[in-house]
Write a structure and sequence with these properties.
The protein starts with a helix and ends with a helix. With 89 residues, the chain is mainly alpha-helical. The mean pLDDT is 89. It has a single domain (5-88), classed as Winged helix-like DNA-binding domain superfamily/Winged helix DNA-binding domain (Arc Repressor Mutant, subunit A, Orthogonal Bundle), CATH 1.10.10. The chain has five helices and two strands; from the N terminus they run H-H-H-H-E-E-H. The protein is 58% helix and 9% strand. The protein has helices at residues 5-13, 17-29, 34-40, 45-57, 79-88; strands at 61-64, 74-77. Strands 1-2 form a two-stranded antiparallel sheet.
């Protein structure tokens, strides 16, 4: 990872509150499916999908596509996301 701690801190600080909440939750629980994240973060499925898209675009999470549908996708924190979650603690 080529980013230094100040870049990670700046990026983590710029996240929306709901993005921070989901990133920290995912870092704590490990891999999860979208429905489980929605329940644990008290979010609606539409909301969690928007948050996950944003976190993926920022390269903070990875999504392994499920074989049946998006509901079977497995979400986990990327190396960059783990560093950001550490900064947010």
């Amino acid at each position: 990872m080529a980013e230094d701690i100040s870049e990670i801190f700046q990026m983590a600080s710029s996240l929306a509150d709901d993005e921070k909440k989901v990133l920290k939750l995912l870092a704590k629980v490990g891999a999860s499916i979208p429905a489980e994240l929605a329940v644990k973060s008290f979010s609606l499925p539409e909301e969690i999908n928007k948050i996950l898209r944003s976190l993926r675009e920022k390269e903070l999470i990875n999504i392994e596509r499920g074989s049946k549908s998006a509901s079977s996708d497995v979400i986990y924190v990327s190396e960059r996301g783990r560093a950001a979650a550490q900064v947010l603690k």
